[in-house]
Amino acid sequence: MNARILIADDEAKIRKVMTLLLKDEGYEVSAVVDGLSAVHEAERFLPDVVLLDQQMPDMTGMEALKRIKGAYPETVVIIVTAHGSISLAVNAIKDGAYDFIEKPFNNDNLLLVVHRALEYKNLSGKLNRMKKRFDETQALGQIVGNSAKLQQVMAQVRKVAVTSVTALILGESGAGKELIARAVHNLSLRADRQLVTVNCGAIPLPLIESELFGHEKGAFTDAREMHQGSFEQADGGTLFLDEIGELPPEAQVKLLRALENRTITRVGGKKPIAIDVRIIAATNHNLEEKVRQGDFRLDLFYRLNVFTIQVPSLRERRDDIPQLVDYFIAKYNRMLDLNVTGITQQAINRLMQYEWPGNIRDLENAVQSAMILSQNGLIDADCLPMRIKGYPQSIEAELLEETEPNIIKKMNSAMEKKLIEDTLKRYDYNRTLTAKSLHVSRKTLFNKMRKYGL
């Protein structure tokens, strides 16, 4: 498509000369008589370059320049000034004009300036696209993989990031929900402001209100000074409520009120504080089931479930495992000053076959452990944790020598140990969450851990 040039000049002769010159060069041209018409025509015509006369009725070229550049920053504006008005032209360039030409102008000089303006616009467009790709690469740097499942998630991330709606991220523990939340923030218009993360399952019940909304000095025994809560800290930015399904009912009511009113009140305070926060929540729970059981408020669920992103488990995106392994090898070579150069195909095959109950976090731990045990700079299957490479056949032989009741007993113990071990890893060795998931008390879990040397 030919470049579009918009001319704005109150002199009919000037408009005619410019139009003929530019059309002869193959440009699409539109000409108007004043600055206000130029602003309206820019909206319809979407020009690449605008030639604006400085002195026009109704609206000067300077005023039209500010309006056009404000609405269409990539449009290139050239100011046309009367002889001797250099100071005005300099001010126009400070306000965003690309260049200026003086009346009476030389035809060849006019065409040269327009040609250079178009080259500048094309170059600026390429640089902006490169910067956008670079910024996105930086924003998504820790999200590794090219599987179809992951690309579907990233498409959702890009769509929701540019809006201000609340996002709910669902997925198993260790699947990368926090990375997805960070990507939504980094690609949003709030990227230059704070991203504040709150783990709703890790805050003691008496401190939840203070953690979220802050407290005034003297609000309770240990409140020796005023404290800003997470909402205030994230004002203008993003608040990430991780493990929102763990939030107790009392806190759910106050969170809902804050989301509805867009205000918070510190503990011990009386004055509501207006907040501008974008909410991203995440959970590994089935919130709809928790709503049915009465453990999660339906109205809060609706508030949070505006746009849902389902993060796939590692089992659903096994094709990404080799790329993730390479990423973790590079990461821990730097962090641990190691020199691991790769991994054998046999080891990769074992990793691809494993079920990964702890997802990516589990894979990262396995790779880190294997790197430490590796020899000659290569990870082989023997370096992998026992749960992945399989238990030695000698254990199986021992079982075969036992009587039938003993076999069943030992098999049950091995299965119980593995279940506890995998669940501990899934919850980052948080005993409270592990015990809750296994439906046992913390004391029972501790006794089992001691029994199995965990």
Q: Report helical residue fraction.
A: 40-55%
Radius of gyration: 32 Å
What distance separates the N and C termini? Answer: 69 Å
In this structure, how is the largest beta sheet organized?
5 strands, parallel
Mean pLDDT: 86
Strand order of the largest sheet: 2-1-3-4-5
Number of helices: 20
Any low-confidence stretches, pLDDT <50, length ≥5? none
Task: Provide structural commentary.
- With 454 residues, this protein is an alpha/beta fold.
- The chain contains 20 helices and 14 strands.
- It has helices spanning 12-24, 35-45, 61-71, 86-94, 107-139, 148-161, 177-186, 208-213, 230-233, 249-261, 287-292, 298-304, 321-336, 345-353, 359-373, 386-389, 393-401, 404-426, 431-438, 442-451, and strands spanning 4-8, 28-32, 49-53, 76-82, 99-103, 167-170, 195-199, 238-242, 263-264, 273-274, 278-283, 307-310, 342-343, 378-379.
- It has a five-stranded parallel beta sheet, sandwiched between helices. Strands 7-8-11-6-12 form a five-stranded parallel beta sheet.
- The longest helix has 33 residues, at 107-139.
- The radius of gyration is 32 Å and the shape is elongated.
- The model has no long low-confidence stretch (mean pLDDT 86).
Describe how the helices and strands are arranged.
Blueprint (H helix, E strand, L loop, with lengths): L3 E5 L3 H13 L3 E5 L2 H11 L3 E5 L7 H11 L4 E7 L3 H9 L4 E5 L3 H33 L8 H14 L5 E4 L6 H10 L8 E5 L8 H6 L16 H4 L4 E5 L6 H13 L1 E2 L8 E2 L3 E6 L3 H6 L5 H7 L2 E4 L10 H16 L5 E2 L1 H9 L5 H15 L4 E2 L6 H4 L3 H9 L2 H23 L4 H8 L3 H10 L3
Parallel strand pairs: 1-2, 1-3, 3-4, 4-5, 6-11, 6-12, 7-8, 8-11, 13-14
Antiparallel strand pairs: 9-10
Helix pairs in contact: 2-3, 6-7, 13-15, 18-19, 19-20
